[in-house]
């Protein structure tokens, strides 16, 4: 439904107009805050498991691990609250805002466009299509790796956080079951949370590459769209 | 007239003075405060004695060893005389058929009213033949005695989780008690072994208050397993400061820095070692310079190195950890992206210099 609407809109608009307003301000703001939060989370998270070289000197004047963990938790709150805000925006925003939460999996045309995009990335077709919102392949990837990934990182992250806050704390009450559900040994949850960081990193590599590549290669703007909100068509 | 615990203790030669001391000791070790001491005394004086049967399955007897070394001799005397009356094939005087007869007697006389303490676990493969007692598989004895008990105490990591005899590939199929007995309240007191004071306190609590202490999600008593080693570790300031021992004999380890980088499992282990400590409060592993190995956590024997912080994940089939798997994946993705970019650039260059791409009408 969405894709059809998209495609319809694209076809109608692209012929006549050169620019469409796609991403509203709250969504764009969220995108960049979220990107920053994830960057901080990945860096600090890496050093939580593999700490920096030991510091010498008076213990009472140092708090390196403390700060690293503090930044991780602060960024985690930004990430999690941002994600909640993003869900809210999916409800009240325009229909592009819903794309990363709802996949039109029963729509044959959408699937055929997913495969079209795949062929485009495999150099099997010469011409990319035009899309107002996300291209269907990007939408699928964002749903699988970002939306599901974010829920996974929030569930495992706050479960670990609840261990620090202690038994009976809000985080333990709301998320403590995650540890029990994953076998009960939080060492496992640490490892799985850490693995989640690498999955996120893989998504980010592909995502940034695709954004830059499509910005150059495709028939529409991308990076500037995520900054200004306007999708510009080049032909 | 039915016998009370107090009657038994007096008969065992414990004075009233010692008895009252024991009650206040227990009250404080349970974190109940001194006001609870008279309550405990009253319960022990008036309530009919609840028998405890102590079974041994596949195990190494380290739980019993720990138990009989309970710090305060008074606690040991009292609790032992509470227990040894009934059945514990390692500690009791009776042996052979005489001993096994006691099991039957308690089961019928105190039907639904005795506590079953299990040290070790039953192996289930080959119909339980890997652990035979009195010519019968242990699992049968366990099922029989469990059928009429009031509650079960799973002593140690064997009974609670399976422990080393359940390590992959677990040839005997050693199985924790709660996976065999599913219709009785079970309290897990994990550890390899559990701390003596924790064991005596749990028994006393159950005998005096006739109910299970409050349990956490995993079925462990909250009062002793409510916090991680890391939460009360005296090396924690070094952790927060980022001061770690990097090798066993380096400057940091001599200075007593945090053992996190040496694989300490304190941050993921729920137990009372960093508060109650061992051998009468003398020390505990981290205080002796070795990281916690997480012996009271499920699967600690199968979760990769005791000396790694980011440990191997067995699900990957090979010895590998999150960083190796994830790092490799990221490198592959990175290389893929670079190759893709190169092909893209080539195709673009060819298109520019060669035949113009036919402009499609859109
Ligand atoms: C994309 C998001 C995130 C990434 C990439 C990330 C990454 C990481 C990594 C790599 C670790 C180290 C794991 C280890 O080796 O033990 C870690 C630990 C942790 N993370 Fe996250 N994390 C994310 C989100 C969150 C969230 C939302 C929370 C919620 C509060 C959170 C809370 C924690 C906690 C409590 C720890 C353990 C800290 C400790 O043991 O001292 N994380 N994170
Ligand atoms: C941690 C880093 C990042 C994450 C997790 C991330 C995640 C996302 C997500 C979830 C969306 C979908 C937005 C929505 O529909 O709500 C998106 C869109 C987008 N992102 Fe990122 N992003 C990151 C970094 C970047 C960077 C560095 C760039 C620029 C080079 C970028 C460029 C874009 C663009 C251009 C779009 C819109 C795609 C389109 O128009 O179809 N992102 N990103
Ligand atoms: S030695 Fe272990 S338990 Fe103690 S602070 Fe370091 S990591 Fe935590």
UniProtKB/TrEMBL annotation, chain A:
<dbReference type="GO" id="GO:0005886">
    <property type="term" value="C:plasma membrane"/>
</dbReference>
<dbReference type="GO" id="GO:0009055">
    <property type="term" value="F:electron transfer activity"/>
</dbReference>
<dbReference type="GO" id="GO:0020037">
    <property type="term" value="F:heme binding"/>
</dbReference>
<dbReference type="GO" id="GO:0022904">
    <property type="term" value="P:respiratory electron transport chain"/>
</dbReference>
<keyword id="KW-0813">Transport</keyword>
<feature type="transmembrane region" description="Helical">
    <location>
        <begin position="195"/>
        <end position="212"/>
    </location>
</feature>
<keyword id="KW-1133">Transmembrane helix</keyword>
<keyword id="KW-0479">Metal-binding</keyword>
<feature type="transmembrane region" description="Helical">
    <location>
        <begin position="29"/>
        <end position="49"/>
    </location>
</feature>
<keyword id="KW-0249">Electron transport</keyword>
<keyword id="KW-1003">Cell membrane</keyword>
<keyword id="KW-0472">Membrane</keyword>
<comment type="similarity">
    <text>Belongs to the HupC/HyaC/HydC family.</text>
</comment>
<dbReference type="InterPro" id="IPR016174">
    <property type="entry name" value="Di-haem_cyt_TM"/>
</dbReference>
<protein>
    <submittedName>
        <fullName>Ni/Fe-hydrogenase, b-type cytochrome subunit</fullName>
    </submittedName>
</protein>
<dbReference type="InterPro" id="IPR011577">
    <property type="entry name" value="Cyt_b561_bac/Ni-Hgenase"/>
</dbReference>
<dbReference type="InterPro" id="IPR000516">
    <property type="entry name" value="Ni-dep_Hydgase_cyt-B"/>
</dbReference>
<dbReference type="InterPro" id="IPR051542">
    <property type="entry name" value="Hydrogenase_cytochrome"/>
</dbReference>
<feature type="domain" description="Cytochrome b561 bacterial/Ni-hydrogenase">
    <location>
        <begin position="22"/>
        <end position="229"/>
    </location>
</feature>
<feature type="transmembrane region" description="Helical">
    <location>
        <begin position="137"/>
        <end position="161"/>
    </location>
</feature>
<dbReference type="GO" id="GO:0005506">
    <property type="term" value="F:iron ion binding"/>
</dbReference>
<dbReference type="Pfam" id="PF01292">
    <property type="entry name" value="Ni_hydr_CYTB"/>
</dbReference>
UniProtKB/TrEMBL annotation, chain B:
<dbReference type="GO" id="GO:0005886">
    <property type="term" value="C:plasma membrane"/>
</dbReference>
<feature type="binding site">
    <location>
        <position position="264"/>
    </location>
    <ligand>
        <name>[4Fe-4S] cluster 2</name>
    </ligand>
</feature>
<comment type="similarity">
    <text>Belongs to the [NiFe]/[NiFeSe] hydrogenase small subunit family.</text>
</comment>
<feature type="binding site">
    <location>
        <position position="158"/>
    </location>
    <ligand>
        <name>[4Fe-4S] cluster 1</name>
    </ligand>
</feature>
<protein>
    <recommendedName>
        <fullName>hydrogenase (acceptor)</fullName>
        <ecNumber>1.12.99.6</ecNumber>
    </recommendedName>
</protein>
<feature type="binding site">
    <location>
        <position position="233"/>
    </location>
    <ligand>
        <name>[4Fe-4S] cluster 2</name>
    </ligand>
</feature>
<keyword id="KW-0479">Metal-binding</keyword>
<dbReference type="InterPro" id="IPR027394">
    <property type="entry name" value="Cytochrome-c3_hydrogenase_C"/>
</dbReference>
<feature type="signal peptide">
    <location>
        <begin position="1"/>
        <end position="43"/>
    </location>
</feature>
<dbReference type="Pfam" id="PF14720">
    <property type="entry name" value="NiFe_hyd_SSU_C"/>
</dbReference>
<dbReference type="GO" id="GO:0046872">
    <property type="term" value="F:metal ion binding"/>
</dbReference>
<feature type="binding site">
    <location>
        <position position="230"/>
    </location>
    <ligand>
        <name>[4Fe-4S] cluster 2</name>
    </ligand>
</feature>
<dbReference type="GO" id="GO:0051538">
    <property type="term" value="F:3 iron, 4 sulfur cluster binding"/>
</dbReference>
<dbReference type="InterPro" id="IPR006311">
    <property type="entry name" value="TAT_signal"/>
</dbReference>
<dbReference type="GO" id="GO:0009055">
    <property type="term" value="F:electron transfer activity"/>
</dbReference>
<dbReference type="GO" id="GO:0044569">
    <property type="term" value="C:[Ni-Fe] hydrogenase complex"/>
</dbReference>
<dbReference type="InterPro" id="IPR037148">
    <property type="entry name" value="NiFe-Hase_small_C_sf"/>
</dbReference>
<comment type="subunit">
    <text>Heterodimer of a large and a small subunit.</text>
</comment>
<feature type="binding site">
    <location>
        <position position="63"/>
    </location>
    <ligand>
        <name>[4Fe-4S] cluster 1</name>
    </ligand>
</feature>
<feature type="binding site">
    <location>
        <position position="258"/>
    </location>
    <ligand>
        <name>[4Fe-4S] cluster 2</name>
    </ligand>
</feature>
<dbReference type="GO" id="GO:0008901">
    <property type="term" value="F:ferredoxin hydrogenase activity"/>
</dbReference>
<dbReference type="GO" id="GO:0009061">
    <property type="term" value="P:anaerobic respiration"/>
</dbReference>
